[in-house]
Write a structure and sequence with these properties.
Chain lengths: 564, 694
């Protein structure tokens, strides 16, 4: 009989993963927030009655990996088991007990079968606006960053709390969209719940204990097998990045033990005055993602597969910023954590992880308004863009592709429908990939202006202006971020900056760093890069030692339409 | 003399070319190995076979309808023409930068698929339209001529043109087209504003590049085919099946070959839709399972669901995002890597995984005895008693059960400490669950509940798995039509002439412009109707109107069908009501207070669907057959054990004959498994009707 139930459990595990994926897809389709629908900045999961995560949707970004795993336990503690009723839906945007900033709303729904609590569904989405100063790094504390919703009931026994709705409506810029998103989150949990009950009926289950044990035991064992295969060692790494006004150093020590890997951030810079701080839960998510993708990529995320990845950081460091530190742009530091972790990891286990890359997404928001003396409407346009990823031990870095984030860019034809913004250029940035045996991924150029009659504020959220990606094993630096107006007016990598009518912002997003000595790069790859214009003739000669004769031959072949 | 009632359907697939000939009331079919070097050879060969069977000459054929995977294969195998792209300055890398994301987040060594054209084959010109279609930077003809001169020097045979916002204003693309026609009359040209006038530059540019890339190949193939058929005495017109489930002229197909990409699967969906019509079924799930993949499609009111974009040539475990997007009208299908040849293994979590890796035909599943040592779905099916080792594929291959057992034991049984039967059961359950999950997700995405659907199963492996799939999905009725092995080719003969024209134009309901809408839809209707008229000079042509709408701020449009009145006398209130109705069906509730916008407009012109004869359905089965005493042990997954199942030969079942589950119904092409929970009855048209026991 045990083997029979083993087959059933296999099927049920598959089913639960499919259920949370459905939950996530429903959210992608109904959410109003650009970051959810275009960028996949969301998460969905199913939990047992103890609040242990059993399955999490693959759709979503790593930023929610651990945060989601921890969230439901906070809800159970705050709400109190005796107050959990059928038809309830709970909500929060607590950065420390949710997913890192007020813009992420997490909703949890208890799942009941025949009157008994059998589990929970949770989902998270990045919403359009949460009031306060708006999305940016300019707040001095979390109080300025928007409306705070402590863990509370959104619905009690099926009745939505109208007082809560009124308070939310009164505090945000786009109330209809935000309320729409809140309902979308609740609906997505409801879809998960219905499918779970169907599954339990089909298999004749009254509770999830058996399947939970099966999932968690197998995941724990598989994860520990991977950890046990690593050398028992310690290694340290560090990386310095731009920060807001002053550079920030991230320091990390990895220690591999029998049953866990501890990542400790002692020695990391302190809390910043501006909103680029991370609650620990968010830093933990990216540290954990970095390790998991390197050593146990195919093991699904759940309570047991994540538990062996322990993350600690002294309080009051930028990766463990306590309340009420400002945290709105916590993604900037969060996205740079994997490169820091890899600096240590590579010393322990060379040949697996990539060189440093652009890391942080190259996002910006444009707030357009009619220039004085002109007519028109105001609008806000947020875009997601990526620099190059770091070269890998056996492959070049990826051109203009997000890592570690999982987001997608928006088509510029869609962006230009949102407001009077004009994207004049969005294409690869030659010579931006760090030289190496494997070349870093290329960054990209963008040029951003407005329709005639408009001026705008440009909210920059870029790093790697002064601290480009560093190569590994002799690989060269990736190109740094550049930003200026088309008349040469200088601009900063972070913060809100005014751009007058008729001016354009000229952006160069960073490239990934190289891996290995460029002198050992396969000459055929250098020729191909030159033919495609990934590198210029100067770089081919200077970094890779290509002769003038070979360069001329490649250029002639391109003119003749030959593929190289 | 040629006769309109003699029609030939031809489907070129990856392995076989299927040919079906229908004369008044009779049908003849054959399967010929696909001849890659000259695909027309297999067609000629197959045509002669069926003509001989029917006792006619090729000259008597009244119409030929053809579908092919050649276009798809050319894209997958990168065997297209030497092609250049001309695009807007600043956007040279759109087809290479894709969505700037990784379709698999947990793979540090992930590589993204290369674009069809490397960077040096992408040229730019200085020009720009804005998001309303106004000219921001005019295009200088002299600059175009200079670029065209470079293209001439480089010797390209095909050129794609894709400019930013050209779906709103095609003037600049048209100018480039003119210069190319003038200076390089022999080079083939594809304009994005003609091939796929939809917003979203990555999809549109990729689509026009794909079209240009396969155009010379397809044009030459279609020309050769036409010549060969004439030489063989064929006097009739040849038409092509397109991805949207209709047929177009050979000239239109040569101009827009990218529209042929999903023609085979589209034929399968049309085949299922036709059976749905004959049975008067409004809600049908078609399930087509072959050697490497399974395809699932929703068919409502006898019309397969269509979409405006799909992905071709997936490079990474059939994963979404790992292929290239093609924005053309297409029948909406889910395709997953689950077929008879899909291989199983045990992963780090001690979970059985099945597919998408496939044993193919060489070495094939372990039971073929050709050296395969990994268990495939077919091996599990054999061990579970679903297949007769002596009678597989009409007896052409003898299956070796011992090989299957050995493969199952070594790959699954040993590591999981399961016996062979349980290993086979586990493998089959996992692949069935994968397909059931795909069907469930597809249904949820379309706001449908499958419990009131009927499944129609075809393709070699589908009838083996359809019964269990129905149990998992709560579907009560399953139809297995005759001729399931050549379903797509039969489907071609049931398809109407049709062409869908669409265009992206943004309009908010708060900014509703009825006159502009009327003009736009009239243009689209004329365009679509024009294509259909070239195929059929007399039939009435119906127009179907569809708009894609969403709340302003959302990124996902939903398709809304409009009646001709609603479309041609447009008013905002009706549009809003129609949108909210469909939105509520999909997502539970409308969102109050939000503006609504329309993004894409589409008109499908089609000849009326073929009048179908309703099947006189037998409701009350006759006597239960006993299978002449032949039985086999069959594993019943719902009971988690072997049961004794009677074996029936399909060709001996008479109308109304009942086979009580558990039962096995055999035929040359496949085997139908009837689980213990179901009974099967032969209908008057030869369909096997499998229903849940009451």
């Amino acid at each position: 009989m045990t083997t029979q139930s083993n087959v059933s459990y296999q099927v049920m595990w598959n089913r639960l993963i499919s259920v949370v994926e459905e939950q996530a897809q429903a959210l992608v389709r109904t959410a109003f927030s650009t970051s959810v629908r275009e960028a996949g900045d969301l998460s969905a999961g199913v939990y047992d009655v103890k609040g242990q995560m059993l399955a999490q949707a693959v759709t979503g970004t790593p930023g929610h990996v651990n945060a989601m795993a921890d969230a439901v336990a906070h809800f159970i503690r705050r709400i109190g088991r005796q107050n959990i009723f059928e038809g309830d839906v709970y909500i929060t945007n607590d950065p420390w007990e949710g997913t890192g900033h007020l813009h992420d709303i997490t909703m949890v729904t208890p799942s009941f079968k025949n009157g008994a609590l059998v589990g929970f569904f949770a989902c998270t989405a990045h919403v359009v606006d949460i009031g306060g100063r708006g999305f940016g790094a300019d707040a001095a504390s979390v109080y300025e960053e928007g409306l705070y919703l402590p863990i509370m009931k959104f619905a009690l026994r099926g009745e939505v709390d109208q007082t809560l709705i009124q308070i939310v409506r009164g505090n945000v810029r786009e109330p209809d969209q935000l309320i729409g998103d809140m309902y979308a989150l609740a609906t997505c949990n409801e879809i998960g719940h219905r499918r779970l009950i169907d599954m339990m009926d089909e298999f004749g289950l009254d509770d999830l204990e058996g399947i939970a044990g099966f999932i968690l035991d197998n995941s724990r064992r598989a994860t520990l097998e991977r950890i046990n295969a690593l050398p028992k060692a310690e290694a340290s790494g560090e990386m310095t990045v731009d920060g807001f006004d002053t550079p920030i150093t991230l320091r990390v020590k990895l220690s591999v033990q029998d049953d866990r890997i501890i990542t400790d951030f002692a020695g990391t810079s302190g809390v910043d005055k501006k909103g680029i701080n991370c609650p620990l839960v968010y830093a933990k998510a990216y540290a954990c993602y970095a390790l998991k993708v390197a050593i146990a990529p195919e093991i699904p995320n759940n309570a047991a597969s994540l538990a062996p990845f322990e993350v600690t950081a002294p309080e009051n460091t930028i990766v463990n910023a306590p309340h009420p530190a400002p945290v709105a742009l916590r993604h900037v530091i969060g996205h740079l954590i994997p490169d820091t972790v890899y600096d240590a990891f590579d010393k322990m286990l060379p040949g697996i992880v990539p060189a440093e890359g652009a890391g942080c997404l190259c996002n910006f928001q444009v707030s357009l308004r009619p220039a004085p003396g002109h007519q028109g409407v105001r609008s806000e346009v947020l875009t997601f863009n990526s620099g190059g990823s770091g070269a890998r031990p056996a492959h070049d870095g990826l051109n203009a592709t997000a890592f570690p984030s999982g987001v997608m860019t928006m088509p510029i034809e869609a962006t230009e429908q949102v407001g009077p913004v004009i994207i004049w250029r969005k294409e690869l940035r030659p010579d931006s990939g760090g030289a190496g045996q494997q070349r870093g991924g290329l960054g990209q150029y963008m040029e951003v202006g407005a329709t005639d009659g408009y001026e705008f504020d440009f909210q920059a959220m870029f790093d790697r202006v002064d601290h480009p990606a560093r190569g590994r094993r002799g690989g060269g630096l990736g190109a740094p971020t550049t930003i200026a107006q088309d008349d040469g007016t200088a601009m900063r990598g972070k913060g809100k900056q005014f751009v007058p009518m008729g001016r354009k912002v000229m952006l160069g997003f960073p490239g990934g760093a190289g891996y290995g000595d460029p002198g050992t790069r396969d000459p055929a790859s250098v020729k191909r890069d030159l033919a495609r214009g990934y590198i210029t003739a100067q770089t081919a000669a200077a970094d890779y030692g290509m002769t003038a004769q070979d360069i001329a031959a490649v250029q002639a072949a391109v003119e003749a339409g030959e593929d190289i | 003399m040629k006769s309109q009632s003699v029609r030939l359907g031809v489907d070129i697939g990856g392995t076989f070319t299927d040919v079906v000939l229908e004369t008044d009331g009779a049908s003849f079919s054959t399967k010929v190995l696909t001849t890659y070097g000259a695909p027309e050879d297999a067609i000629i060969d197959g045509m002669h076979q069926v003509c001989a069977d029917a006792g006619i000459t090729p000259a008597q054929i009244g119409q030929i309808i053809h579908g092919t995977t050649l276009a798809t294969n050319a894209l997958i195998e990168r065997r297209g023409a030497k092609t250049a792209l001309i695009t807007t300055q600043g956007f040279r890398d759109v087809i290479e930068m894709r969505t700037e994301s990784r379709f698999e987040q947990y793979d540090l060594n992930l590589n993204l698929p290369e674009p069809l054209l490397p960077r040096q084959m992408r040229y730019t010109v200085r020009e720009r339209m804005d998001a309303k279609g106004n000219v921001l930077i005019p295009l200088d003809r002299a600059e175009v001529e200079a670029v065209v001169d470079r293209i001439a020097t480089a010797g390209y045979t095909s050129v794609a043109v894709g400019l930013i916002h050209s779906y709103l204003n095609d003037a600049h693309e048209a100018m480039i087209g003119d210069v190319l026609a003038e200076k390089l009359p022999d080079v083939m040209v594809s304009l994005s504003s003609e091939v796929s006038p939809q917003m979203r530059e990555y999809e549109r540019f990729n689509t026009v590049v794909a079209n240009a890339y396969i155009k010379p190949l397809m044009k030459s193939y279609l020309g050769r085919l036409q010549g060969r058929l004439r030489d063989e005495g064929v006097a009739c017109n040849i038409f092509l099946m397109h991805s949207g489930g209709g047929i177009i002229s050979i000239e239109s197909a040569a101009e827009f070959p990218v529209r042929l990409v999903e023609s085979g699967p589209a034929g399968g969906a049309v085949f299922a839709a036709n059976i749905a019509a004959r049975y008067g079924l409004d809600k049908v799930l078609s399930f087509d399972m072959g050697g490497t993949t399974a395809k699932i499609c929703l068919i409502k009111k006898q019309t397969p669901k269509t979409s405006r974009v799909f992905e071709v040539a997936r490079t990474y475990r059939f994963k979404k995002g790992s292929g290239m997007p093609i924005s053309i009208p297409v029948i909406d299908m889910v395709e997953i890597g689950a077929g008879g040849g899909s291989l199983a293994h045990v992963d780090a979590m001690r979970q059985i995984r099945v597919g998408p890796e496939s044993a193919g035909s060489e070495p094939g599943p372990a039971c073929y005895g050709r050296g395969g040592d990994k268990p495939a779905v077919t091996d599990a099916d054999l061990v579970l008693g679903k297949l007769d080792p002596a009678n597989f594929a009409g007896g052409s291959i003898t299956l070796d059960t011992h090989n299957s057992e050995a493969a199952l034991a070594s790959v699954l049984g040993d590591p999981l400490k399961m016996d062979v039967a349980t290993s086979a059961f586990g493998l089959a359950e996992v692949v069935d669950e994968n397909m059931a999950n795909a069907a469930r997700v597809h249904a949820v995405e379309n706001g449908e509940d499958l419990s009131d659907y009927t499944m129609i199963a075809f393709g070699g492996a589908a009838p083996l798995h359809a019964g269990r799939l129905c149990e998992k999905l709560g579907v009560d009725r399953l139809l297995v039509p005759p001729g399931a092995g050549v379903g797509s080719a039969i489907g071609f003969l049931r398809a109407p002439f049709s062409f869908e024209a669409n265009r992206s134009v943004y309009m908010k309901l708060s900014d509703f412009d009825a006159d502009a809408i009327k003009t736009l839809l009239t243009d689209l209707q004329q365009e679509a109707t024009g294509f259909v008229r070239t195929c059929d000079a007399e039939s009435p042509i119906l127009s179907e109107f569809k708009v894609y709408m969403r709340y302003t701020g959302q990124g996902w449009e939903i398709p809304i069908s409009l009646t001709e009145d609603q479309a041609m006398q447009p008013d905002a209130t009706t549009f809003q009501a129609r949108f909210e109705e469909d939105y509520t069906k999909l997502f539970g509730r409308p969102v109050a207070g939000m503006d609504i916008e329309i993004t894409v407009w589409a008109v499908n012109a089609t000849t009326p669907p073929e009048q179908v004869e309703t099947v006189a359905q037998v409701e009350v089965p006759g006597q239960a057959r006993d299978g002449a005493g032949r039985t086999r042990d069959l594993f019943d997954p719902a009971k988690a054990g072997y049961v004794s199942a009677a074996i029936h030969q399909r060709d001996q079942m008479q109308t109304g004959d009942l086979a009580t589950g558990p039962a096995i119904i055999t035929e040359d092409e496949t085997t139908i498994i009837v689980p213990s929970s179901r009974n099967a009855m032969r209908q008057s048209d030869g369909c096997i009707d499998v229903k849940a026991k009451r």
